[in-house]
Design a protein that fits this description.
42% helix, 11% strand, 9 strands, three-stranded parallel β-sheet, TIM Barrel, four-stranded parallel β-sheet, 12 helices
Length: 273
């Protein structure tokens, strides 16, 4: 089973505007070109074409009240309203905001609707990863038994402020026993010290990155040297093409058992698929 742990989609009527805004915001720091139109239908087409069996759609709650969107999203997936392929292939992922005062009850509802993972993004949510509000949310999610996919490192849409740095990641892991947080992008953008502080630790990472960002050597180091059970494949679609990322990783001559773990085995185990 080939699994893409990190993708994004947007409601069809909003996708063109969202894509255009994100491209514009990233232009000055790391220009990006989308590999699709950002809709669920296009994601399903792309992942099938690229040979992936399952993929996690990772929404981001930028406000506490967007919990209600997460309920609608999960209901649409489970009911088949997004289509039979989405119900079969999409790994249900949700997001909660650190300012959600009812996060514990809301998470229970979302788990009841089938949620397998929670997505967090310190930049878009405007809360540092090691801030007490985010730590509270990390503890709630961890106590509920779900893994977290968190944007880490810098963000190409924002200036160079430390919201999810390698040291902040270590601080979060120290403060939240049992935390299972996948550090998206290996925390590498604008943080080359990720190799020093994170490489070799029992901390989950995903290998999504931008070719123009200059982080490929860091990604390769994690792919080749990080504990095998803690490395997962992610494309960050529509910002990365799954097949291109997979081909790049395969070109690094990683041993077959390790490559199979990265490309799906680890995600399958972590998410209980």
């Amino acid at each position: 089973m080939r699994i893409d742990i990190h993708t994004h989609t947007f409601p069809a009527h909003k996708a063109p505007g969202v894509i255009a805004t994100l491209v514009r915001n990233a232009a000055a720091r790391c220009p990006v070109t989308p590999h699709g139109n950002g809709t669920i239908a296009d994601l399903i087409r792309q992942e099938a074409e690229d040979g992936f069996d399952r993929y996690a759609i990772c929404p981001i709650a930028v406000r506490a009240e967007q919990y209600h969107y997460m309920v609608r999203f999960m209901t649409a997936l489970s009911s088949g309203a997004c289509g039979p392929e989405a119900r079969e292939r999409v790994i249900p992922c949700v997001s909660l905001h650190p300012d959600d005062t009812e996060a514990e009850a809301h998470l229970r509802t979302l788990i009841g609707l089938g949620a397998k993972m929670v997505k967090l993004h310190p930049y878009f949510q405007r809360v540092r990863l090691d801030h007490r509000r985010m730590i509270r949310l990390l503890r709630i999610i961890t106590d509920a038994g779900l893994p977290i996919l968190c944007h880490t490192g810098g963000d190409i849409s924002y200036d160079n402020e430390p919201m999810a740095s390698p040291l902040q990641i270590l601080n979060a892991y120290r403060r939240v026993p049992g935390l299972k947080m996948i550090c998206a992008h290996c925390a590498s953008w604008r943080h080359p010290e990720a190799v020093k502080f994170l490489l070799g630790r029992s901390i989950y990472v995903d290998l999504s990155y931008q070719k123009k960002g200059g982080t490929e050597p860091i990604m390769r180091a994690f792919a080749e040297q990080h504990p095998q059970d803690y490395v997962l494949f992610g494309s960050d679609w529509p910002w990365g093409r799954p097949a291109k990322h997979a081909a790049t990783i395969a070109s690094w001559d990683i041993e077959k058992p390790r490559l199979e773990a990265i490309m799906g085995g680890n995600a399958k185990r972590l998410l209980g698929l």
